[in-house]
Design brief:
Number of strands: 0
Number of helices: 4
Oligomer: single chain
Bound molecules: protoporphyrin IX containing FE
Low-confidence stretches: none
Distance between the termini: 23 Å
Helix content: over 70%
Structural class: mainly alpha
Largest sheet: none
Number of domains: 1
Length: 123
């Protein structure tokens, strides 16, 4: 149950860069409602990320009941690390961090697929 809730939160996180891309390519930033939607999206994105780390931890604890190097553990570590990059970007506005933060999103999708398809790969 919680696993799917996590997957949903991840989907919401991933839709943020996609929404930005849609705005750049097709709307050229001209749709006022859409711009407002993105502005709010930017505000809630870090909270959704933080919530995912928290619910991911609870889900992992409920499923595993111990600390082990599971594919989910790796996924959670990378998610938390990416959150850190996001925060550093927010503080410094250094685009390099934004880039790393985005590319790590791709890594996160791959790790999610590994965690879903081969959950016990490391154990
Ligand atoms: C500490 C981190 C985590 C641990 C230890 C963990 C562990 C597990 C385990 C043991 C399973 C059951 C695998 C099986 O079928 O045998 C599972 C399933 C699943 N996990 Fe995780 N997980 C973690 C984090 C996450 C995160 C961050 C996400 C999503 C972004 C996620 C999404 C899912 C999904 C969708 C399933 C399949 C549905 C379900 O059984 O609920 N997990 N996880
Ligand atoms: C799962 C994959 C993720 C993707 C694809 C993603 C994508 C993005 C993108 C595109 C931006 C805007 C930066 C830019 O202009 O390029 C951003 C900003 C940010 N992200 Fe993420 N993110 C992800 C996960 C997370 C997580 C897990 C957290 C926190 C725990 C987080 C926290 C932040 C923060 C704090 C910002 C700065 C917001 C601002 O500018 O006010 N992100 N993210």
């Amino acid at each position: 149950m919680l696993g799917w809730f996590n997957a949903f939160l991840l989907f919401v996180l991933l839709s943020f860069p996609l929404a930005i891309e849609i705005n750049k390519r097709w709307l050229k930033g001209k749709n006022k409602n859409y711009n407002l939607f993105l502005k709010n999206g930017r505000k809630i994105h870090p909270y959704i990320g933080g919530l995912l780390v928290l619910t991911g931890l609870i889900h992992g604890y409920l499923k595993l009941g111990r600390i082990a190097f599971h594919t989910g553990t790796l996924l959670l570590i990378v998610l938390a690390l990416n959150g850190l990059f996001g925060l550093v970007f927010k503080r410094t506005r250094n685009r390099t961090f934004a880039k790393v933060h985005r590319y790590m999103g791709i890594l996160i999708v791959l790790l999610f697929l590994l965690h879903y398809l081969r959950p016990w790969y490391f154990i």
